[in-house]
Amino acid sequence: xxxxxxxxxxxxxxxxVVGRAxxxxxxxxxxxxxxRFKDQTSPFHLPPGTQGPDSPDPPAEEASPAxxxxxxxxxxxxxxxxxxxxxxxxxxxxxxxxxxxxxxxxFFESGRIHWxxxxxxxxxxxxxxxxxxxxxxxxxxxxxxxxxxxxxVVFPDTLLVAHKPHPGPLYTSSKVDSPEVKTRRQAKTHxxxxxxxxxxxxxxxxxxxxxxxxxxxxxxxxxxDPGEEARAVIQRRMDLGKTNGGTS
Length: 248
Prior knowledge:
Radius of gyration: 28 Å
């Protein structure tokens, strides 16, 4: 409630703030209020050409597009370690005057590689983070990916790419947080990953993806069981959606 409205109510009802009154009472109170404002001896008197007091409440600060995007994606259970900002450039456009659909595969790829480095950092520090993206030892390899385009994107814009693992498989992105999926156990050699792209210009998710990542031993050129520590790192991120209660 604004300070001026509170002033109106106090003036009309002898200093007592009241709720919404019937129409005839409100009309009567407004008439009484006007009379009090005209009375120069009244503490509620406002000289002509002046304004009432400012609201004591601080003005609401609007979140920036980046802050809003991060907050929303965290709410939906996406891993903050996966967040990747992707500027849109003019060359991303095609003849249909929007970002070409193929470009989103690259955007998700950049975000996924960034996320893999974060996983490696947790598993073994900078050396493991570097090995994760250079095909050394046990790392991840992309098996499959699907995209769902929600809204076209145009230049200029900046996109926030995010990922979150889940046991899968999914038939629709809206099922990622369903009990059916949440109760599944993580497989030993692979896991599924939901992806989302948030547009700063549109302030909403514009594209989603689902993919399968396989644990792969690049020295032996074969899929593998990465061990309990690696699965625990993934499981902790799967549990983010449960902790935040997020839904797609």
